[in-house]
Each structure stands twice: as structure tokens, then as C-alpha cells.
Design goal:
Radius of gyration: 22 Å
Helix content: 25-40%
CATH architecture of the largest domain: 4-Layer Sandwich
Number of helices: 11
Shape: globular
Number of strands: 24
């Protein structure tokens, strides 16, 4: 069985040509595989939902016709559980789901309730059946899909992977922090909520300081673990899917990082990915931080911690709600170009000036009897330095720097990447 995957497809405008050499080269790579995946990181509708009070950063919406361009690359399945799924509230979610169905995509990670959002979706391939399960660890708490009950409907939303964060400090520092908490009354509202039954008292042995949990430990720092309730649900879905298909693929959208290092995965994500493979998943496809992260081969199965961007056009949305303008000190008289200029400080800051955002890879891998045989890595670039209304389309790159960077990011996982003729290769 052959697989291909890309990172985020944040598409907001139509492809001007599907006949050019760049497009055709990518399409030929994608169509070589039977399972062909991308993460769809916008809502697709004709403003059939109103803007949510919160967004994933940019209120991401594109006309449904962009799905024709996603289809033209050759993709047959997508994940869309991410931090933009509910940018246009439930109307945008429902419309996007309808258009994805209209364009005949297998899509996972979002649903009318939690059971539907977390359910495996199946891609029927010539060589076998592949299950796709999708989740996100980056979301507003109100976007989580709700459980269905016999006496009440569930809530539309995303399949969540929540995580617990503990800040480990010395005994002396914890005692000092406890005194600060008492003097500052930072926990007063929470303590009263626990007494009145509106909050649940923490089960861990430590100190809650505002929204943060601290505990005593020898190795000071931050540790994160996936939420057990979410992990158990996803592992249960994998257990089901591996008995209903030849292969199980898990997609995870995660912006979280280790410390201030955006190119390094947080502890909970590594724990989650390995647990999924332990349960029977055949590959983990990560995306979210808009840059590449390392590749791990765990138990002869690949973990792509982040595939960066495939299409990235967040600076060509056509409309933004007034909330965005107000945040940047702009009035009703200003337009979309004014808003984008203000956010980027006229092109001096933001994702547009980070070259790592505009380069990535496309992995194509082969598996036999559930085990990885090889991974080919095709470097791509998205037009760094071009005007914002032109950049964001992928093309094959002739620079070896992308693969060399991925070599360094993957080395801590024990993964060796060979580079020959600007093609990366991982073999077992």
C-alpha cells in the first residue's frame, strides 16, 4: 500500500492554472499513492455562518470552489479538526461539511456530536481499506464536540485531544508560591467555585496558581501529558478501525511546542503518537505549527510530527469581522489590506517573514504487511519573499537546505535521512 500526505492546506483563492509544470509535477507525485491526504485548515462556504467570537488567529473562510483545486491535486481524504474549524460558528461548520460531501472527500475529525467527530472514516483503495481518524489539540474550549445522550443531543464540534500541564518546581519555591497565592487571592474565585460545586477539586498533589498547576519535583520545568479521557477514546477508535481496515492513519493538528522552540514537539504529543502506534495505528500525520518538525520511525511505523504547510494563503482572506479591526486599533473605515498591513507591521513581523513557514516536504511512503518499507521526501517551497497575494502555492524545490534541516530535526529520534538528487529517503 502506498501513502502520501501533506501538512496544512490553508487555501483562500483559486488556482490560476492547473496546466503549469509546477502543478503537474506535484500532482504526479500525489497520484502515485492510493491514500492521498491533506489537512484542510479553512472553512469553505459562501459566508453561510457568522463569525465566531474567537478564531484560530485569522477568521479563515474560502469560497467552496477552492475544494475543486484541492481535488485537482489528487487528494481523496482530508482532516479538518483544527483551530479554524469553528471560525464561522456552527453555520460555517455545517456548510463546510456539506461542501466536502459535495466534492466527494472522505473527511474526519469534525461532526454533529463527539461520536461522529471521533469516528474512523474509511478510504476504499485498490489495494485495501484505510481508516482515517483525526483530532486536534489546539482549539477554543467551546469548539469541543459534545457527547450524545439518550435524553439530549450532542454538540457539533471537533474531536479534541486535551492535555494536562504541570509546572515542576522545588519544595522551597512551591512554599513561596503558596504564600503569594494566599496574599494575592489569585485562587479565591476558584476555591469558592469548588465549595459551591461549580468546579471540581484538583486530584493531584500540588498547588493551583490561577490557571496553572505546580508540583514538587527534582527536575524543574514543564511536563505535559495527554488527557486520559481523550486518549482512551481515540485509542478505542483505533482498536475499532484496525479490525475494520487494512491500515489506520491518525491525523493530529497541534500548535503546541516544547518551550519556545516551535520546531520541537511537546511531550504530550510524543506520548500520544507512540500510544496510537502501540494500539495499532500505522502512521501519525502531524501538522499545525506551520513549520517542519522531525520524523520518528517508531516500531517500524512513521510519525510525522509536523509536515508544515502545503498551501498557505492566510493573508488573502477577503473579509474579516470587526473584532479583528478593533484588536489592531482600526475603525469601520479601514479595509482588509489595512488590517493585514497592521497585523504584519507593513510586512516586518509575522509568519510572512519567517522563511521556515514557506518551505516543507511531501512524504510518500510504502508499507507492506503493516510495516514501513521506505519513505521518500520531496522538498517544496511556497514563494517566500513574494507579495502576499502571490505566495502560498507549492512547487518542488531544488534546494537541499530543506532536507538538511529535516535531517537535524529528525536525528534526536534516531531517524537517518539520506539525500540523493534532492530527494530524501528513509529506509528500514
Amino acid at each position: 500500500m502506498s501513502f502520501v500526505a501533506t501538512g496544512d492546506s490553508f487555501i483562500t483563492r483559486r488556482n490560476p492554472s492547473t496546466l503549469n509544470q509546477s502543478f503537474q509535477a506535484l500532482k504526479s507525485i500525489i497520484l502515485k499513492s492510493e491514500f492521498r491526504f491533506t489537512n484542510f485548515e479553512v472553512t469553505a462556504h459562501d459566508f453561510e455562518g457568522f463569525p465566531s467570537a474567537v478564531s484560530g488567529g485569522t477568521w479563515a473562510v474560502a469560497h467552496p470552489s477552492v475544494l475543486k483545486d484541492i481535488k485537482s491535486y489528487g487528494f481523496n481524504c482530508i482532516a479538518w479538526a483544527n483551530n479554524h474549524t469553528l471560525d464561522y460558528s456552527y453555520g460555517g461548520l455545517e456548510a463546510t461539511a456539506r461542501y466536502l460531501d459535495d466534492y466527494d472527500f472522505i473527511h474526519a475529525g469534525v461532526g454533529k456530536n463527539l461520536a461522529e467527530a471521533s469516528a474512523p472514516k474509511y478510504v476504499e483503495c485498490p489495494s485495501g481499506r484505510v481508516a482515517l481518524i483525526a483530532a486536534t489539540s489546539t482549539f477554543h474550549e467551546s469548539w469541543i464536540a459534545g457527547e450524545q445522550r439518550q435524553d439530549i443531543d450532542g454538540r457539533p464540534g471537533v474531536n479534541p485531544l486535551r492535555f494536562e500541564t504541570k509546572h515542576v518546581i522545588s519544595k522551597e519555591k512551591l512554599a513561596q508560591l503558596k504564600r503569594i497565592a494566599e496574599v494575592s487571592e489569585i485562587n479565591a474565585d476558584y476555591n469558592l467555585a469548588v465549595k459551591e460545586g461549580f468546579e471540581v477539586a484538583p486530584s493531584f498533589q500540588g498547588l493551583r496558581f490561577g490557571k496553572y498547576d505546580f508540583e514538587i519535583g527534582k527536575e524543574e520545568g514543564k511536563k505535559t501529558l495527554p488527557s486520559q479521557i481523550d486518549l482512551d477514546r481515540i485509542l478505542n477508535n483505533i482498536s475499532e478501525a484496525k479490525r475494520q481496515s487494512d491500515y489506520v492513519i491518525v491525523s493530529i493538528h497541534s500548535h503546541e511546542m516544547k518551550g519556545e522552540h516551535k520546531d520541537k514537539s511537546p511531550q504530550f504529543l510524543e506520548t500520544f503518537a507512540r500510544a496510537c502506534i502501540d494500539e495499532g495505528a500505522h502512521a501519525i500525520i502531524g501538522h499545525g505549527p506551520h513549520i517542519l518538525r522531525g520524523i520518528e520511525v517508531y516500531k517500524e511505523r512513521p510519525i510525522f510530527y509536523s509536515l508544515g504547510n502545503f498551501i498557505f494563503q492566510n493573508d488573502t482572506v477577503t473579509n474579516l469581522p470587526q473584532d479583528f479591526y478593533t484588536k489592531h486599533g482600526l475603525s469601520f473605515e479601514h479595509n482588509i489590506a489595512d488590517a493585514l498591513d497592521k497585523r504584519s507591521n507593513n510586512g516586518a513581523i509575522g509568519l510572512g517573514v519567517n522563511p521556515n513557514v514557506w518551505e516543507s516536504i511531501i512524504p510518500q511512503w510504502e508499507m507492506k504487511n503493516g510495516k514501513l518499507e521506505q519513505i521518500k521526501l520531496y522538498p517544496i517551497e511556497l514563494g517566500f519573499g513574494m507579495p502576499r497575494y502571490k505566495r502560498g502555492w507549492p512547487s518542488l524545490s531544488d534546494s537541499t537546505n530543506i532536507l538538511k534541516s529535516l535531517q537535524k530535526l529528525s536525528k534526536p529520534y534516531g531517524t537517518e535521512i539520506q539525500i540523493n538528487n534532492n530527494l530524501g529517503l528513509i529506509t528500514l
